[in-house]
Specification:
Number of strands: 8
Structural class: alpha+beta
Largest sheet: 8 strands, antiparallel
Number of helices: 1
Strand content: 35-45%
Distance between the termini: 69 Å
Order of helices and strands: HEEEEEEEE
Radius of gyration: 21 Å
C-alpha cells in the first residue's frame, strides 16, 4: 500500500512538473511572438507601407539561430520578398529584401520600401534606424 501511494505521488508530481514546463514555454513563446509582431508592424509603418498593402505574409521561426519573423509580399512591389527578423533577447528588427531568393543588392535592384536595421527600446518604441549595408545611422530618437 505504501509503495502504491509513493508511485501515485510520484506520478502526480511528475505530471504537474511537465504541465508547468509546457505551459511556461507556451506562455513565454506567445509573449515573444506578440512582441515580435508589434515590432514588425511598427517597422512596416515606419517604412511607409500599410497593413492593407500586404498581399501575403508568412511567419518564420528558425530554432537554430533563434530568429522569429515574417516574410511579407506587398501588392505595389510585386516579386519582392521582404523579410523581417527578430532574434530573441535583442531589441532590433533586421529587414532585408529579395527577388527570387537573391538579395536585391546583388542584382542592382531597389526595393520600394527601405531595408534597414531598426532598434527598439524597452517600451517598443523605435530609437534608431541603421542602413545595415553602410552602417550609417538614418534615424535616432
Amino acid at each position: 500500500m505504501k509503495r502504491l501511494k509513493k508511485v501515485i505521488v510520484f506520478l502526480l508530481i511528475s505530471t504537474a512538473f511537465i504541465f508547468t514546463i509546457a505551459f511556461g514555454t507556451k506562455y513565454y513563446f506567445t509573449q515573444y511572438e506578440k512582441q515580435t509582431d508589434e515590432r514588425i508592424e511598427k517597422v512596416i509603418e515606419f517604412q511607409g507601407a500599410t497593413r492593407e498593402n500586404i498581399e501575403r505574409e508568412y511567419v518564420n521561426y528558425n530554432k537554430t539561430s533563434d530568429f522569429l519573423g515574417k516574410t511579407v509580399y506587398f501588392k505595389d512591389d510585386p516579386g519582392i520578398e521582404y523579410q523581417y527578423l527578430v532574434r530573441r533577447g535583442q531589441n532590433r528588427v533586421l529587414v532585408s529584401a529579395k527577388q527570387d531568393g537573391v538579395p536585391l543588392e546583388n542584382i542592382k535592384k531597389r526595393a520600394k520600401f527601405p531595408t534597414h536595421t531598426v532598434e527598439f527600446d524597452e517600451n517598443n518604441e523605435i530609437v534608431k534606424v541603421t542602413d545595415w549595408r553602410t552602417n550609417k545611422v538614418l534615424y535616432k530618437k
